[in-house]
């Protein structure tokens, strides 16, 4: 056996070069996988947000389109006294109340006064019997409720008396239905598209 002849193998420089290339490949692979994971997470958040906006918007539009507009006799015979006013709209800082036909499964149905209002970091829907109009905030706290939006940061309401009129943030004639209602919502650091709802008059 010839001891002077070197066995085949890699030199130290070749090993270092190979390790460097392998490290770069692994680093690129890890970065790509991390980017893919972040992209998927971001897409899931965007998708969830779009679903939330669409679901809440459609629900509120349905409630607004079902608003009770006009006079109601209240049932039974009317002996010349005329009907009582059924229309009811009221807005204030951070809330909108109106009378509408509400349907939640089998538990709740028929005409109710509903209130969409900011409650801390939530946008909450509450409802009461149709005679519960003009109540103070404390009276609404005991009403049945459902959370519409979490992580609420801003909520503003305005109404428009006629389609070509100005938006107003006060409504003196509670028994008169507006033409349009506008809700402005900001949650989780982002503004929603303005929700403009038409009242069926």
Structure summary:
Keywords: Membrane, Transmembrane, Transmembrane helix. With 201 residues, the protein is α+β, with helices and mostly antiparallel strands.
Fold and architecture overview:
Keywords: Membrane, Transmembrane, Transmembrane helix. This is Prepilin-type N-terminal cleavage/methylation domain-containing protein. InterPro entries: N_methyl_site (IPR012902). It is a single chain. By secondary structure, the chain is α+β, with helices and mostly antiparallel strands. The protein has one domain (12-68, 85-200). It contains 2 helices and 12 strands. The protein has a 5-stranded antiparallel β-sheet, with helices on one face. A hairpin with a 2-residue loop joins β3 and β4 (95-104).
Helix and strand arrangement:
Blueprint: H1 12-65, E1 71-72, E2 84-85, E3 89-92, E4 95-104, E5 108-119, E6 122-128, H2 137-140, E7 145-150, E8 152-160, E9 167-168, E10 180-187, E11 190-191, E12 195-198
Antiparallel strand pairs: 1-2, 3-4, 4-5, 5-6, 6-7, 8-9, 8-10, 10-11, 10-12
Which class do the helix and strand fractions yield? alpha+beta
Radius of gyration: 31 Å
Beta percentage is 25-35%
Helix content: 25-40%
Instruction: Write the element-wise H/E pattern from the N-terminal end onward.
Output: HEEEEEEHEEEEEE
How many structural domains can be distinguished in the coordinates?
1
Intertermini distance = 107 Å
Q: Helical element count?
A: 2
Q: In order across it, which strands form the biggest sheet?
A: 3-4-5-6-7
Which descriptor suits the 3D outline?
rod-shaped
Tally the beta strands.
Answer: 12
Overall average pLDDT: 83
Low-confidence stretches: 73-84
Largest sheet properties:
5 strands, antiparallel
